[in-house]
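User: If only I could read backbone structure tokens as easily as an amino acid sequence. Underneath my words sits a plain record pairing an amino acid chain with its backbone structure tokens. This is the protein in question:
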Amino acid sequence: MKPISIEDPSDDRLAPYAGLKDAALRRAIEGGGPPGGPGGGPSDRASSGFSDGPGTFIAEGSLVLGRLLKSPYRLQSVLVTAQRLPVVAGLLGEAEAPVFVVSQELMNAVTGFNIHRGVLAIASRRALPDPVDLLAGAGRIAVLEGINDHENLGVIFRNAAGFALDGVLLSPECCDPLYRRSVRVSMGYVLEVPYARLEPWPTALESVSAAGFLLVGLTPDPEAKDLRGLGLDGHSRVAFLLGAEGPGLSPEALRAVDVRARIAMAPGVDSLNVGSAAAVAFHAAFGRG
């Protein structure tokens, strides 16, 4: 590793790190999806730098950088403050990617806000696997419909790693797992848990059932079965279907499930945040190993 000091914020080598909160600029830099505006659904995929193949993404913080280096994603470069350089040097070892060293003030000026962790990295995206291939080698998965909040998505991926899920399938409307905030909130585990897009939606849910999975839809519906009484230990293949914060699962998705399950709540409380609900469900089904 050979650090390269940079003092000029207009240095072309810093351009890939510019304007991390500017959605249009990041889309152009990271090679995102088709044009779109802010909000949920496909336009959110575009505004977050969505790409299922060629392109880049940002990793933030030394913990995430460490997981990036152990992942199949290729590191392109690192941007670090002088204060955090010793930590980064210990992580990178013999890595050949350039390491740009800047002041905290310059990093903030380039990125557009205070990067208090002092470490950023750029890595190459990878083509997503075929969902059929992901299903073939899996025993426990999560299937997500319309999750368009990057922090919720990052939490779900962290939960998936924590309870040893084999993969995550995303509906076309889900936001980008490799958006900077998702990667950060997942603590980098989104780089370790395989995921794929499941299309067309929701008819492609049939492929999950066809692969031998018990498809469990989480819903606050009081008529749904209590999650604690499902006896999921007896099933070798289980897929949890979770919907977006607020609307939950669509009626079309719920019609595709094998069983509707609910998390028992205190009177007057109908549901949990989707990230919390995922953790409870994964622990109930898989927490004993």
